[in-house]
Amino acid sequence: MSMPPLDLNQARKAVDTIRLLAADMVEKASSGHPGTPMEAAPAAYLLYTRHMRHNPANPDWAGRDRFILSCGHASALLYSMLHLTGYDLSLEDLKNFRQLGSPTAGHPEFGHAPGIETTTGPLGQGVSVGVGMAMGLRFLRKRVSDRLFDSTIFALCSDGDLMEGVASETASLAGHLRLGNLVYIYLDNRITIEGDTSLAFTEEVATRYLSYGWQVQHVEGENLQDLDRAIARARHSPRPSLIIARSHIGFGAPNKQDTAAAHGAPLGAEELAAAKRFFGRDPEQSFVIPEDVAAHMREAVARGKALEKEWQQAFEAELKQNEALKSWQQAANGELPAGWDDLPTFAAGEKLATRQASGKVLNALAEKLPFLLGGSADLGPSNNTVIKEEGSFTACTVGRNIHFGVREHAMGSIMNGLAHIPGLIPFGGTFLIFADYMRPPMRLAAMMQRQCI
What we know:
The chain is an alpha/beta fold. Helix content is 44%, strand content 10%.
């Protein structure tokens, strides 16, 4: 996707509008997190207007890139971006932020508003689900169509995301698998609720991710040009990418920037007014979207429609000769092939371990369902979760047997990501006692009604 030169004046005006729109949402609700949206606005602006392939008129377009707000507490940022770029989310919805029955919940809820790719809030889950999405898209790209599923997973993540153990588990596997369709922007603001991150988090994040096999870049979070170039480089990396953006929580709030006070409470009337003056805006007005900013941001609608139209034409041309694509279309529509339920039967009292029976049924299903894939947390031979006559999912191959390693928590989150990719049916197995490690993603799968086995 070719991009015009970055108009810095236009970009900065749009970025400042995003910041203040989010801050106004939190202020009106008397609840929420203004600081992270204010620091992350430059990255979100660049992704939605310059780097992501998305169609606000059809948020479920199969050929789109995906955006995950892993630091879900910054939901006001996501809602601002969705409204400004033309998704079906009104300004009135933004004014009802965190209100009962509103689509703009305190943390993004999958299915509550268009453009929310997955439920986030429990830190670490978003970046982990993203790994599953990236694996699913690689699977479709290599086994169905290289052109149609060449999509990228973008995410914004925080210090808290990278402290959570599940993020380490999935980052390790992503690096091992060389998931080059994964681009994460880490908001390195060095602030937690209790104070400076140095209280509990002094590791060198860049070195850790380099050791996982990721590409790592450093940028200043307010430098739009450098951040723009870093995202472009990341998109062409054969490895997963982490862009470490030195950012400033509550940017523009003169007394609360770079402090924990900007994190989890409204700025307050006086501080918000001071922030508006800092950005050259009228401190007496709220929810202001300048006409030129609105027009510029809504360009995403026409651009998205054109991108999907081009993709749809390629899809229809390829569908005429690609049997795998025909099978995928059937699966993506929720259709099961004839005879899929012709399964083994077991007599009452038959001496057969349940895991052996499970393995027989799993393999019978795998013969009929080409988009059933999964594995175990290093227990495949023990709990019979290996698909016979199928290869492994590796950095070089896309067999249907996934080796999660001894990473139960990661397995659950990755399954959720796989289940977000149309047509795929993921499965995962472990022993019951180890399933305790998987409770957070299992809960999220139930909340999102994802098709995980």
